[in-house]
Amino acid sequence: MSKQIIRLDNVSKSFDTTEVLRNLNLSIDRHTFVTLLGPSGCGKTTTLRIIGGFEKPSSGRVYYDDTDITDFAPYKRKLNTVFQKYALFPHMDVYENIAFGLHLKKMPSSQIDEKVKNMLRMVNLQGYEKRNIDSLSGGQQQRVAIARALVNEPEVLLLDEPLGALDLKLRKDMQLELKNIQQALGITFVYVTHDQEEALTMSDTIVVMHNGVVLQQGTPQDIYNEPQNAFVADFIGESNIIDGIMHEDKLVSFCGRKFECVDTGFAKDENVDVVIRPEDLKVVSPEEGLLCGVVKSCIFKGVHYEMCVVANDYKFLVQSTLASEPGSMVGLSVVPFDIHIMHKEAK
If residue 148 lies in a helix (H) or strand (E), which one and from where to where? Predict the structure, then answer.
């Protein structure tokens, strides 16, 4: 059995004269939690709908286990979808909503009952069988929608921003529950969100999309620590992105001085983007700093202080567990491993 379960080959999609996807290539491995991440309008929901069969690509092909399913209707695909608005049936109770797909398959009542009760345990809704949908909270309705999709035992579950309507605390709780459900069942989840923290928390693989193309695909650690371009660096977490010059392998200059780094393979004196995460900048005494600057602001964020430090006419965002008073002079230090060099994007 192939490790890969879904593949999109050169998929493009246009609505009238608006191109939403451009020659998109994407592969998804089975038994993984894959998140399509990007800003509104980047094409992530359209990609999900093409995988689900709700949209047909203008060009390109969609493969499932190496079978071309581009022209298959949604009900002929071995996957189910959980939509942002859940699409539950208000005239049915919780049990009937979850059992709906099993009744369509004309499954025996005893088997339906066993499957529904197992799924209620999975989503922590035991005892809610006879509750009306309208009497449930947003988080409970979301669990019913997931249970209704999973009870049909799909090989792939597609989720289109299913946590979007929930408050922050419930979102965080449901993130962990979804990840636990995916790991317990061992099926493939393809999840759409614009929330970077959500993607980093839940995913085995993140696919960063922008303007209808995939900019980078990798583990959360790879995406955060080794962004391949300025958009990814800026979109995933917070970053200081500075103009620099790569003089030679492992030597870059920015803010008026040279720094050792670990990157190689750039042209001599190539103009580059230098990325430094706020948490990687260490506040030291002015004498010890590689750069020296003035603290312009210091805000308490709960687990750390967030400071703006102006050094050599650049405003650095710095995160530290120790506060520095606005107006004070500080040094900034960074180790070579935490200086990330990227090619400038063509304009």
Answer: helix 138-150
Give the whole-angstrom CA distance, residue 242 versus residue 157.
40
Q: Are 236 and 198 in contact (CB under 8 A)?
A: no
- Of 25, 23, 32, whose CA–CA distance to 5 is shortest? 32
Query: Quick one: how many helices (H) and strands (E) in the chain?
Result: 8, 20
pLDDT in tens, 196-207: 989 999 999 999
Distance (Å, whole) CA 90 – CA 172: 26
Query: Pairing mode, if any, of strands 79-82 and 156-160?
Result: parallel
**pLDDT tens per residue across span 144-198:** 888 888 888 889 999 988 877 677 777 888 888 888 888 888 899 999 999 898 9
Q: pTM to 2 decimals? A: 0.84
Across the strands, what pairs with 297? 308
Q: How far apart are CA 119 and CA 126, in angstroms?
A: 9
Kind of pairing, strands 33-37 and 205-210?
parallel
Q: How far apart are CA 276 and CA 255, in angstroms?
A: 13
Sheet holding 270-276, edge to edge: 257-260, 251-254, 240-248, 270-276, 340-343
Token pair recorded at residue 23: 């020659």
CA distance 289 to 41: 42
Q: Any residues with CB less than 8 A from the CB of 110 and at least 6 apart, and which?
A: none
Q: What pLDDT digit, counting tens, does each position of 220-242 carry?
A: 999 998 898 889 998 998 899 99
Of 26-40, 50-64, 160-174, which gets the smallest average pLDDT? 160-174
